[in-house]
Protein 1
Amino acid sequence: MSATSRQYAELYRRFQAPISKVYDCGKKCAPLNNGTPFCCDAENAIPIVEKSEYALLQSRSDLWKPFKPRDKQQANEVADLKGSDCRAVECKGAAHCERDNRSLACRSFPYYPYFNAQKELIGLAHYWSFEGSCWIIHNLTIVELPFIQQFVASHEYLFKTDPAWRDTYIGQSSTHRGVYSKRKKKFPVIARNGDYFWVLPNSGGEMVPAKKSELYELRAGFPGPEYK
Ligand code: SF4
Ligand code: SF4
């Protein structure tokens, strides 16, 4: 069963920490996207929320409205949601962001809850399609512990109320391993205690500790030295 609006309100209460108190990452990526942070641009990713989450947001603010497709592909994506518990939405834009009324997806980006092959929740892994766009993905050592802890705790709360979300992310984690195995590349995971690991390709999801010095090499994947 979907989480209720009341449960989303509790989830929001538990998940308020910024990804970093030091860096405003939107200032790092926006110059590459005509001044709009990539994750706040519906052209890059249509925000999807559960109907119960949308009802909560509507009761708190006029920040969000139904998403209007701009082209056929977007119309198809929206049509795919018909009959589901989810709907496509969009906010008024980054200039009008209301911190307390960000969706769970906004709060979590660029991370999703990573499960190992044994279906244990390990921590955070990134949405790989935003590599090269999202500055955080290339600078993950700046992600702060309160964010990590609240990310994990709030998702554990969500999984208790709606086990289907757990299955979704177990599938997403498996796909991530498959994509990187095809690339013959390892990918980083931030564990719930703030430690870093590599998930090795073609290994059944084996994890080995990652040194910060190794993670710094990911910075080279973000375009333009001026944005590092
Ligand atoms: S999370 Fe990533 S895409 Fe979003 S504002 Fe920060 S750097 Fe940009
Ligand atoms: S609510 Fe804020 S963080 Fe979420 S998409 Fe809109 S501007 Fe970005």
Protein 2
Amino acid sequence: MPADVYFADVRNQYDKHGFPTMSNPQRVQKLFEAADLGSCISEGDMVAIKIPFGGLTRQYGINPFIVSVVVEEVKKRGGIPFITETYAWHFSMSWGAGAPSGLMNIAKKGYTQLLGAPLIFADGIKGVHREVVPVDGLILKEVDVAGEIYQADAMIVISHLTGHPMSGYAATLKNIGMGCSARRGKAMIHAGAETKVVWNKEKCIFCLRCTRVCASKAISYENNEIRIDRDLCIGCGDCTFFCPTGALRMEVIHRHPEELAKLYKGQLCSPATEIQQIKLADAVKAILSTFKEGKVGFINDVTNVTYECDCSPNATVPIICDVGFLASKDPVAIDKAAIDLAIQSPGYPVGLASLLEDASPGVDKAGSLYKKLLPNDIYREDFWRIHLEAAEKLGLGTLEYNLKQVV
Ligand code: SF4
Ligand code: SF4
């Protein structure tokens, strides 16, 4: 049965007299009510409001005024909201020296004062606060869920639709699967192969920097040897990044069999990309399984849709004209609706989309750009379907939807 997806169109900005109709925060408030997201929250629930913070140089992201609208809606229903995000997979991509400096950076920009709820890193100050959750996934059998997501009673997931070279587009499913996983979980999804850290004694100068940077305390120094405890290692790669001599490196120990992806889907666009997308859907299943039925609601922002996600400094000029906002209780349907609307929107007249020969409505601008600009042939326009179809196969929702325009 198709799922209901509620839509507020930002292109309906002016009434017939030329006056502005409403602001984006007002649109989101209307959507929250129309989609009945309040029913996810009971009196006294600790409610995670999951937003993507993006990288330090991010240009776009979820507007704090929109987050504050959701905070107020949660409070109205007796919920206790907290805004949350997780640590990035690699130190080189993350918030400087960890969660505290990330929070300081956000506070400096004045973001926190606008939200009306505390900001709490879901996987702790070093990205290792996690619960290992078993899952009957298509590939993964367990997922490292960020500790505070695991603890929350309810969750409202606010996502920003962007292009993404791993999944074609990224919105709700990516914000849950990757964004609610702790660092080891992120490593498991990203990796097209299982890896281990190896030490080369010849190159080591015994500075012991690796023993200090490893948040998992997996590295020790004993009898003139660097030892790596594989049970503790989460595969984040921080030690290899900080080792000054290249004495530590990640080595592939097991490639996921290509046959697995072939079994799942007749046509491969790229084994690594395909496997990553399937694992992403597996992670969504594990994360949502930590909530009782009906306790999670979803909002997608389909404005400022960029070529890459908000982690990337390449996320500059949007690639399509703004569309609007969506709300639903179905994480698959809301992403399918967001991507369909984005594809139907005309290409942005300047920036990357202007490089395309055809950026008209109906053309997948992100997929076309990946095909044109990235130096390999793994991309096809609709390769985003892989994670949506995997999520549907896992019973997380449906690709069929009824779009109900609210404003
Ligand atoms: S950081 Fe590199 S050079 Fe320093 S002790 Fe560790 S392995 Fe050796
Ligand atoms: S040993 Fe290296 S890769 Fe493993 S958790 Fe520590 S820093 Fe991360």
